[in-house]
Inverse folding.
């Protein structure tokens, strides 16, 4: 290696600015790949490269610590302020430019985060005699955030529109910007106070080891998501306390991974071919479209646009694309979030409305096809969104018991409305298809196995039992509507997960056919990709294993009904007995609310009010979590004080001030590197 190469390597790894230059280079690479998209492997490679560059800075700071006797160099403060100003300016440009240049939001956030991290480092490098200043500034920032949070919580319930957005933005700035700064300053004050108290540092280290054992235990009992959250909290607190910029690195990596939307795939020939001897039509909602998968077809996962999320792993796609498939062409118009009024023929039903990103309703899409269009089979899964699937999931995942009589009544009474809407939808579909085309109503599979204990699922036994009974009643409504419209009913789909042994509580969450809580971003504008509301859309939906089970149920049912695919076709729905719900429908009163109506009488509105009330009633648990995080933060301070340059390795007293009349020597001069001690 030449002297030039050796000098460059030494500067990159050993100087003050070299590791920071590497950090910036890795950041630019990661942000570029995340913003412009590409294959998954490129994002992984960029993330690894970024973490390697960041580790050079982190390891150096852990090894040398931070000087507290002369303060940071002026350039560090100037660069930190410049980065913060640039980050804010770029975000202003993003909003003023009507969000047309999408990657600007991510770049602005990254620059602001880098600037704040370096500003915190400069602040924490204050001389030892100014340690009390760190305490008061830290307490002031944390107190301001606490006051802002209390005001925001009191104003949010009544806020709407622009006022709601303004409150959320102010709360976000307080929590994501001011709180970390305040905690960082308090951490530095604590490290300086513990510089000679080795015993306290060892106690903190033991506590962190105990927490680590608890995280491993959570993984072993299948509480993986909770373990990930606990591990993330521990890692961020340790990084924040150590002042190594590892917290900045972790948050940057998280932002870029979130901003990078899931991969998209091109549609197979079976979906694009204009001809086919045996055509399968797949209609309905997310259980048909394939939401819950790791990848979607291009153009169907665009937040704010088309969010149908049609997946290549959906069982309808596999029915037309796997080897020896029954069908050679698929008309795939199922769309996530579809309700019955998104399926109906618009010319005869005033309430019929296409979904965002779709030009026509699903039946209207069929009507616009060629005159010779004659499907071999039509399968439709709809009714779950009319019944309030998303509201039920939110209610049961929220604090409190969703199996109370009040909540159960809201959902179960609404099923009469659902059955009427389904009957109307099935009849409309039948009227708009060629005669004798088999139409099959598909019910919803049971996600939970009937077991008294269910590790890894944050629902009580009573809540799981309620969801199971609710799905039985919903499938009964689907069955009754199919009878009334004289179409088929795919009964084997109800227990598809159970037969394949992929139900939750029947297998570990990682091996189940249903996502319990799944974190995945979306395509679309940056502000939508960064919205936490867009990260959990894959939750409580079948994944790839689940759709394999659903395909198996479809194949089994078709083997038992081969006559449906071969002319002459039999009369549909013949001989199916009516269920008890159909017989008692006329004698029961009309429900008081609906999941699809608008206004305050909407069942969803009432469920949301109930969930918010449960959250307010459980505020004490939130306080317990905050206290636990505070204890963990204190333990991180104590453990970090054992590291070189972060506590007990530093001298106990400040260096005496140099004699103003003494000649200046090299050792008296302030070092250009604040990490070097003299």
């Amino acid at each position: 290696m030449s002297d030039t190469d050796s000098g460059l390597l030494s500067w990159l790894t050993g100087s003050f600015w070299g590791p920071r230059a590497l950090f910036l280079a890795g950041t630019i690479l990661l942000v570029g790949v995340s913003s412009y998209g590409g294959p998954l492997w490129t994002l992984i490679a960029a993330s690894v490269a970024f973490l390697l560059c960041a580790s050079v800075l982190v390891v150096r700071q852990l090894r040398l610590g931070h000087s507290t006797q002369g303060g940071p160099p002026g350039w560090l403060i100037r660069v930190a302020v410049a980065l913060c100003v640039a980050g804010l300016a770029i975000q202003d440009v993003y909003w003023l430019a009507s969000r047309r240049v999408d990657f600007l939001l991510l770049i602005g956030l990254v620059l602001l985060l880098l600037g704040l991290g370096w500003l915190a480092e400069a602040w924490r490098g204050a001389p030892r005699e100014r340690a009390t200043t760190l305490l008061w500034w830290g307490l002031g920032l944390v107190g301001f955030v606490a006051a802002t949070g209390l005001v925001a919580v009191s104003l949010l319930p009544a806020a709407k529109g622009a006022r709601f957005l303004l409150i959320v933005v102010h709360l976000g700035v307080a929590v994501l910007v001011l709180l970390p700064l305040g905690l960082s300053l308090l951490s530095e004050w604590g490290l300086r106070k513990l510089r000679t108290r080795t015993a306290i540092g060892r106690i903190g280290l033991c506590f962190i080891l105990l927490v680590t054992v608890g995280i491993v235990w959570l993984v072993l009992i299948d509480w993986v998501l909770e373990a990930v959250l606990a591990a993330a909290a521990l890692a961020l607190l340790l990084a924040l306390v150590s002042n190594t910029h590892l917290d900045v690195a972790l948050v940057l990596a998280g932002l870029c991974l979130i901003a990078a939307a899931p991969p998209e795939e091109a549609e197979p020939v079976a979906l694009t071919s204009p001809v086919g001897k045996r055509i399968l039509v797949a209609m309905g909602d997310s259980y048909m479209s394939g939401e819950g998968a790791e990848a979607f077809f291009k153009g169907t996962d665009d937040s704010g646009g088309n969010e149908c999320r049609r997946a290549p792993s959906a069982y309808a796609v596999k029915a037309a694309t796997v080897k020896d498939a029954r069908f050679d062409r698929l008309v795939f118009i199922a769309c996530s979030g579809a309700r019955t009024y998104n399926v109906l023929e618009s010319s005869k039903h005033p309430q019929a409305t296409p979904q965002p990103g779709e030009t026509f309703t699903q039946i209207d899409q069929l009507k616009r096809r060629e005159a010779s269009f004659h499907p071999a089979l039509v399968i439709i899964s709809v009714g779950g969104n009319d019944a309030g699937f998303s509201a039920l999931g939110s209610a049961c995942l929220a604090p409190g018991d969703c199996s109370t009589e009040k909540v159960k009544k809201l959902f179960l009474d609404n099923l009469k409305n659902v059955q009427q809407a389904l009957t109307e939808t099935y009849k409309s579909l039948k009227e708009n298809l060629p005669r004798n085309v088999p139409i099959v109503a598909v019910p919803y599979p049971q996600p939970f196995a009937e077991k008294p204990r269910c590790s890894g699922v944050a629902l009580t036994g009573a809540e799981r039992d309620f969801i199971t009974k609710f799905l039985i009643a919903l499938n009964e409504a689907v069955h009754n509507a199919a009878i009334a419209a004289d179409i088929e009913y795919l009964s084997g789909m109800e227990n598809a997960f159970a037969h394949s042994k992929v139900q939750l509580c029947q297998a570990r969450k990682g091996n189940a056919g249903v996502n319990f809580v799944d974190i995945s971003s979306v395509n679309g504008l940056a502000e939508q990709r960064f919205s936490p509301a867009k990260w959990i859309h894959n939750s409580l939906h079948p994944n790839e294993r689940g759709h394999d089970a659903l395909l198996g149920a479809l194949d089994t049912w078709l083997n038992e009904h081969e006559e449906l695919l071969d002319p002459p076709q039999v009369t549909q729905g013949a001989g199916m007995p009516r269920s008890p719900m159909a017989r008692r429908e006329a004698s029961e009163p009309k429900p008081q609310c609906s999941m699809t109506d608008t206004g305050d009488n909407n069942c969803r509105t009432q469920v949301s009010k109930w969930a918010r009330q449960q959250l307010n009633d459980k505020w004490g648990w939130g306080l317990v979590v905050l206290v636990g995080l505070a204890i963990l933060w204190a333990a991180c301070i104590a453990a970090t004080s054992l590291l070189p340059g972060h506590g007990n390795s530093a001298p106990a007293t400040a260096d005496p001030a140099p004699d103003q009349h003494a000649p200046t020597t090299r050792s008296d001069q302030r070092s250009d590197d604040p990490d070097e001690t003299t």
Confidence is low (pLDDT under 50) at residues 67-71, 568-592, 648-678. The first helix runs from residue 3 to 14.
